[in-house]
Amino acid sequence: MDKVRLYVRLTAEVNDRLRESMRHRGDLSRQIDEALCSTDLATVELNTVPPGRSAHALTAIVSSRADRRLRDVARQRGCSVTALADGALSRWLARKL
User: Fold this and answer.
1) In whole angstroms, what is the distance from residue 86 CA to residue 2 CA?
2) List of domains in the chain
3) Where do runs of H (alpha helix) occur along the chain?
4) Of 17, 22, 34, 53, which residue is 20 to 30 A from 91 by alpha carbon distance?
């Protein structure tokens, strides 16, 4: 499966919870890919991510499927990839932790 680099900014809450989960479950990119593929992106709450350097930024290596799905739904919902990814991760982490 092809992999792509996905650059997103996250709210402090989601960033902290994701990194805590990583300590218990391992690979950050794998977790982000799983969250983007298994979460209903059409219904997640869109989080407001602070602009610029005040947000936590990361680059994850995700499947082309996850990247395409995220970008398609963001376009359909008229929102940013970052807001949608943050919302998806927030919902996924709530189920996992």
Assistant:
1) 23
2) 3-96 (1.10.1220)
3) 12-25, 28-38, 64-77, 81-96
4) 53
Q: Which residues contact 24 (CB under 8 A, 6 or more apart)?
A: none
Taking only the tens place, the pLDDT of each residue in 6-38 is: 898 888 889 888 888 766 555 888 889 999 999
CA 69 to chain centre: 12
**Amino acid in the structure at residue 54:** S
DSSP output for 75-96? HHHT--HHHHHHHHHHHHHHHH
The model carries a pTM of 0.81
What are the backbone angles phi and psi of residue 39, rounded to the nearest 5°? -100, 140
Question: Would you say 91 and 44 are in contact if contact means Cβ atoms under 8 Å apart?
Answer: yes
Indicate left, alpha or beta for 51 from its phi (over 0: left) and psi (-120 to 50: alpha): beta
